[in-house]
Amino acid sequence: MNVELFIPCFIDQLYPQTAFNTIKILEKAGCKVMYNAEQTCCGQPAYNAGFWEEAKVVGAKFLNDFSDSTYIVSPSASCTGMVKNSFNDLFTNTAVHNKCRSIQNNIHELSGFLVNILKKDYFGAELEGRAVYHDSCSALRECNIKTEPRQLLTKVHGLDLVEMKDTDVCCGFGGTFAVKFDSISSAMAEQKINNALEMEADYIISTDASCLINLQAYIDQHNLKLKTMHIADVLASGWGNV
Predict the structure, then answer these.
(1) Is residue 188 part of a domain?
(2) Comparing C-alpha atoms, which of 59, 79, 69, 68 is closest to residue 12?
(3) What pLDDT does 75 receive?
(4) What is the CA radius of gyration of the chain?
């Protein structure tokens, strides 16, 4: 199966290994991965800040950079959710309306694509320790992803996956929210971290690097024995760097 890879600017700049691990996982699943190096951003930062005209310009480039007839896979529920849902505000009843709808139907977050489209949930990954899964707002509410990441993680050798309380509550990142309301954001991150520590977790895993950087910042600031990991990095553990 041919798939196009969408790597959000956030991962491209801060977590490039997650992008490479996504490719490794897709190839191990039997996909031929195509990457358009001209791709940039989906327009979410501008859109969420209220600059819809600027977001429309960036979004139009996104529509031009990707095919409307091929699956598009991204290791980010947040950016996938932006395209699937918020592009309606930008491109409904425009000249690119039909192409936008086709791309919205074809784009998938990584875990959802693996489980729901490819019907694959085992990749031979190995990771020792106990983990909790954090449901990002975008994964749960925009992409309707809940069981898929858990199904994948239960197949990781050595990983004890447990449920923490309030797993579906926001981590406090929210893009510019973490900047404008930093004290509230920190308190929300603290609550999420405490819930993970209550379960004696070694890892917090999620589909969104944006959530994880917010949580990892709190962990680092307080020198806690806890680590955040993107699900793509978990699924590539034990074999992904061989």
Answers:
(1) yes
(2) 79
(3) 97
(4) 17
Phi, psi of 46 (to 5 degrees): -70, -40
- Indicate whether 240 belongs to any domain: no
Burial class (CB in 10 A: 0-12, 13-18, 19+), 179: exposed
Residue 158, SS3 per DSSP: strand
2-5/32-34 β-pairing: parallel
The confidence score (pLDDT) of residue 231 equals 97
Query: Do residues 235 and 21 lie in contact, with contact meaning Cβ atoms separated by under 8 Å?
Result: yes
* Low-confidence residues in the chain, pLDDT < 70: 172-181, 240-242
Predicted TM-score (pTM) of the model is 0.93
Q: Within this chain, do residues 110 and 130 fall inside the same structural domain, yes or no? A: no
Number of domains observed in the structure of the chain = 2
pLDDT at 169: 85
pLDDT at site 179: 63
Of 58, 82, 117, the residue that ends a domain is 117
* Among candidate residues 117, 141, 170, the one where a domain is terminated: 117
Task: Tell me how far apart the alpha carbons of residues 73 and 24 are, in angstroms, rounded to a whole number.
Answer: 13
How far apart are alpha carbons 86 and 46 in whole angstroms? 12
For residue 29, is it within any domain? yes
Domain containing residue 149: 126-235
Cβ neighbours, 10 Å, residue 85? 14
CA 151 – CA 164 distance, rounded (Å): 16
CA distance 92 to 89: 6
Q: Are residues 190 and 214 in the same domain?
A: yes
* Whether residues 161 and 89 fall in one domain: no
d(CA 41, CA 55): 9
